[in-house]
Amino acid sequence: MAKTRAPGPIRAATAHDVARLAGVSQSAVSRAFTPGASIAPDTARKVAEAAARLGYRPNLIARSLITRRSSIIGVAAAYLENPFYPAMLEALSTALEGAGYRVLLFTARPGESSDPILEEVLRYRLDALVMASASLSSRFALECRQAGIPVVLLNRRTEDGATSSVTGDNHGGAALIARFLAAGGHRRPAFIAGLENASTSREREAGFREALAALGLPPPLRAVGHYDFAEAARAARELLSAPERPDALFCANDHMAFAALGVARREFGLEPGREVSIIGFDDAGPASWPVVDLTTYAQPIQPMAARVLSILSHHLADPAAPAVGAVMPGELVLRGSARLPPQGVVTQEGRLVWKP
Amino acid sequence: MAKTRAPGPIRAATAHDVARLAGVSQSAVSRAFTPGASIAPDTARKVAEAAARLGYRPNLIARSLITRRSSIIGVAAAYLENPFYPAMLEALSTALEGAGYRVLLFTARPGESSDPILEEVLRYRLDALVMASASLSSRFALECRQAGIPVVLLNRRTEDGATSSVTGDNHGGAALIARFLAAGGHRRPAFIAGLENASTSREREAGFREALAALGLPPPLRAVGHYDFAEAARAARELLSAPERPDALFCANDHMAFAALGVARREFGLEPGREVSIIGFDDAGPASWPVVDLTTYAQPIQPMAARVLSILSHHLADPAAPAVGAVMPGELVLRGSARLPPQGVVTQEGRLVWKP
DNA sequence: ATGAAAGCGCTAACAG
DNA sequence: CTGTTAGCGCTTTCAT
């Protein structure tokens, strides 16, 4: 009577099984699956055949244990309601997958410290960590560095600059917006801030204020939207109710501008682009939808993702390399939500941008 | 002269190091980090101290090799431009993280077969796989099953029903929309399809047509938007240019409805909700933005994510359990883009829904 | 309750 | 080019 296989989870074939079937040693099997290894074509063929027959796939877990590299990169993301982040995540994931990495996703609960989840980064021996949006304690960044795990911040930066980062040109973009508004004849600009402690919001505000001052315009009215849709709507409401109503609203990101757009049109009957100008920052997907049609400073998503990968590779190759802070230039994309100035409007790659 | 540590990536502390420092055996250290294990409180304390001193963290890779469980679940997602998916991804990730799993993200390139990436699923010995949006060859699903890896499809279903799935009530929701339009006095409804071979689009169309027929209304005009923004805009343009202009547009998902909204208002000067009714499916984030204000059938994102987890747990506990196809009921959320019928409009949890 | 010993499936010297 | 031999860091019997 034939002995039947035990039921339940059939154990996957191992390199040993393949070796036995192919009549070679187990190390030969290993070599057959290692790109650069020296192996006779004939042996490789025999192994390939046996492997195919058994449905063998090298166990990456076992490989990682030895090589101490998992080919997995942690990506901490949150705030996915803001359509900028899914786009960034997709670009980043594509870039990393293209380079042979897998992405382990951490969606930090807003408010929660990201540290507990990030403990896992160390436990799983991830090759590197990309922090998009979530905050990171400097203690943890240090610990990662000690463990030899490169960290790159995306669209975020620490005070000390000790951790590598990739950001858009927050300061320059905001300054450009100030000049754009001035050129368009706006005289009472206002600003809706994001989170007070976020580098993006602070840098954008600083760039805006400084440029405004340099142009001889008054400092902007200001309200805080905490990068939250409902709170941004409240902020817009507050600003548009001011005795001297602002003639322009610069929102620290598109997500808040989407809220402001609705408030202006539906609650104040102000047509964006005609009676009030509303400008965002990011060029998140919906900004280009005709129903939304938001003028905004576009962050270059693909190049930013590519830059993250290159910095990561750089750190992986040389663990002692110093941190780099990459600032990627973007463009002011002109749509219907802000009045155009008489000069500097040019078409570029099928879209209107402002080049003073 | 004191011997200094070798430079470069300092090797992380192992259970052996901790054991040596604590003066216990390596297995004692293992037990100290295993929740249910029998260990003397005193020993546990000594181990904890030594571990803290060395910054020791159990290597999950090594553990996985033995336990054959990685606590990692693969999630294949794509089409993140459609804001429904980031929301789903976030909910799913939160649910899985809450249950102690990590999420390995696969962003299948559109068009590409998902199989090559999914090979990785097998190599990494993932515990399970959730397919949101990406297509999955039945060959691969079979292979996963043979390898004992549970697969759950999210917002997608196979013909044969051999793979577990969680979907919204596509047929029922679409039928409800048909009845809603009829009740609102619409007489010439049209339909914008998504991808012709997607179960979501097919089921929504079938539900819509059948209900329309039952109501004695003519079959809807039809155009295909392929779940793509630009193509959906084209489809809307085509339908709204028809000699007998439709008085309602049901789009197979919100993302396409966002495009239709823009076309109606900007290109045809038709105010959605007054001159033409536009309805979507999903209740993706922007649908509720006042600038957008889309009437749509809401899929219950959180419950769907929770259901995926429960089905996964079920399959993990019993690998031989049969596939289940969960259909989660949603609600028709009323906003400004579609004319309201005189009856059945009720307020529920702060929003307007239709309960005929 | 604890330690010794045997692997998990694989890679990486090392001889041949 | 190939097989043999050690482990990677951990969990898990099995005695004690």
Task: Provide a concise account of the structure shown.
The structure is a homodimer of 356-residue chains. Helix content of chain A is 40%, strand content 18%.
Describe this structure in words.
- The structure is a homodimer of 356-residue chains.
- By secondary structure, chain A is of the alpha/beta class.
- In chain A, 40% of the residues lie in helices and 18% in strands.
- Chain A has helices at 15-22, 26-32, 41-54, 60-67, 84-98, 115-123, 138-146, 170-183, 199-214, 229-240, 254-267, 301-317; strands at residues 72-77, 102-107, 128-132, 151-154, 164-168, 189-193, 221-224, 248-251, 277-282, 295-298, 325-328, 331-333, 345-348, 351-354.
- A six-stranded parallel β-sheet of chain A has the order 2-1-3-4-5-11, with helices on both faces.
- In chain A, helix 8 (170-183) runs parallel beside helix 9 (199-214).
- At the A-B interface, helix 4, helix 5, strand 2, helix 6 and helix 11 of A face helix 4, helix 5, strand 2, helix 6 and helix 11 of B.
- Chain A binds a DNA duplex (16 and 16 nucleotides) through helix 2 and helix 4.
Layout: helices, strands, pairs:
The structure is a homodimer of 356-residue chains.
Chain A: H1 15-22, H2 26-32, H3 41-54, H4 60-67, E1 72-77, H5 84-98, E2 102-107, H6 115-123, E3 128-132, H7 138-146, E4 151-154, E5 164-168, H8 170-183, E6 189-193, H9 199-214, E7 221-224, H10 229-240, E8 248-251, H11 254-267, E9 277-282, E10 295-298, H12 301-317, E11 325-328, E12 331-333, E13 345-348, E14 351-354
Parallel strand pairs in A: 1-2, 1-3, 3-4, 4-5, 5-11, 6-7, 6-8, 8-9, 9-10
Antiparallel strand pairs in A: 10-12, 13-14
Helix pairs in contact in A: 1-2, 1-3, 2-3, 5-12, 8-9, 10-11
Chain A binds a DNA duplex (16 and 16 nucleotides) through α2 and α4.
